[in-house]
Write a structure and sequence with these properties.
The chain has 5 helices and 4 strands. The protein is α+β, with helices and mostly antiparallel strands. It starts with a helix and ends with a strand. The relative contact order is 0.17.
């Protein structure tokens, strides 16, 4: 019999395995069309962050609003040590996530054949906010070896 902490860790591992299997199955079946699931994932993440974690969308600049979302991922979830949001123009945003705690899961997705990890919570929450602001963006996520993280890029469609 395991203790309560081990049970919690085992539940977390099982949930990760289930999400991994679901994402891999969706990718195997739909390919890039699996990105259709990114919108509801992002919407639900934003809902949680606004209702339960105090996310308040303040400001007019998309860059500032994306930074607010990223701060929640750092402060409330501990997903990264630092997140930098840059924008070349209104049609291009880049998010660099340093020391990304979800990197192991991202690696597992890639190893199972998911070429474009469409279930990333940071990517999807930020995409959901951009959609709410009226932007239609293409999203891409790639590993960032130097920063032990990921780079998420949004370009206007």
């Amino acid at each position: 019999m395991v203790n309560e902490q081990q049970q919690t860790e085992n539940r977390s591992r099982l949930n990760s395995i289930m999400l991994l299997a679901l994402a891999a199955s969706v990718w195997d079946t739909l390919g890039r069309t699996g990105f259709a699931f990114s919108a509801p994932i992002g919407n639900h993440a934003l809902w949680l962050m606004e209702r339960e974690m105090g996310l308040e969308i303040i400001g007019d600049s998309p860059r500032d609003i994306l930074m607010d979302i990223c701060r929640v991922f750092i402060n409330e979830f501990g997903f990264a040590s630092e997140i930098e949001v840059t924008s070349e123009n209104e049609g291009h945003f880049q998010i660099k996530v340093r020391d990304y705690t979800n990197l192991y899961f991202l690696d597992l997705l890639i190893k199972t054949g998911v070429k474009d990890p469409f279930v990333d919570p940071i990517m999807n929450a930020c995409q959901a906010m951009l959609r709410q602001m009226g932007y239609k963006m293409h999203q891409r996520i790639e590993k960032w070896e130097e920063g032990n993280g990921v780079i998420i890029t949004y370009t206007e469609v």
